[in-house]
Amino acid sequence: MSAEIVFETGRTVVRRWRRSDLASLLSVYGDAEAMRWVGDGTPISREAAENWLQVTQGNYEARGYGMFAVELRDKPGVIGFCGLVHPGGQQQTELKYAYLRAFWGQGLATEVARAAIAYGAQVHGMRRIIATTAPENEASHRVLLKAGMHAGELTRDDDGEMTQFFVWDLDRE
Prior knowledge:
There is one protein chain. The protein is of the alpha+beta class. It has a single domain (5-127), classed as 3-Layer(aba) Sandwich (Aminopeptidase). Helices cover 32% and strands 31% of the residues. The chain has helices spanning 22-29, 32-35, 46-63, 108-124, 138-146, and strands at 5-8, 12-16, 67-72, 75-85, 93-99, 128-133, 150-156, 162-169. The chain has an eight-stranded mixed sheet, with helices on both faces. The chain is globular, with a radius of gyration of 15 Å. 28% of the residues are buried.
């Protein structure tokens, strides 16, 4: 396995980001329809994507993990991103993902999320991983539940928006 490959699933290869992934980042995170569920719903700018590449490299160096590129085994090209991160420096490890719309509804997000959780537990000794979604994002709820997480609390953010938490806890396995 190449040093940049982090893990593989039946249909995918999950690897560390490369500088050349900038266009793919912009394709996935620049899609307004897909981004309605991410952050404030604003598509990512080129400057923010370039910064994110640097931040992710720093995460690899500091923690050994971060966001990763997802590619199909039998077809070149990035189809999305998945990873384990600490947004805003939060203590809890959070599972995040986003895919090109052409790959929604095929079970790929669930397949990779399940493998990312296993990777975090087996390689980095993680015992608890969270995920957050908009309460109305039922597609992500299904992905997270199928990946082995359970629904946690529904909280109100500082800006008044609601967030649904999901939790994977090794002690509950």
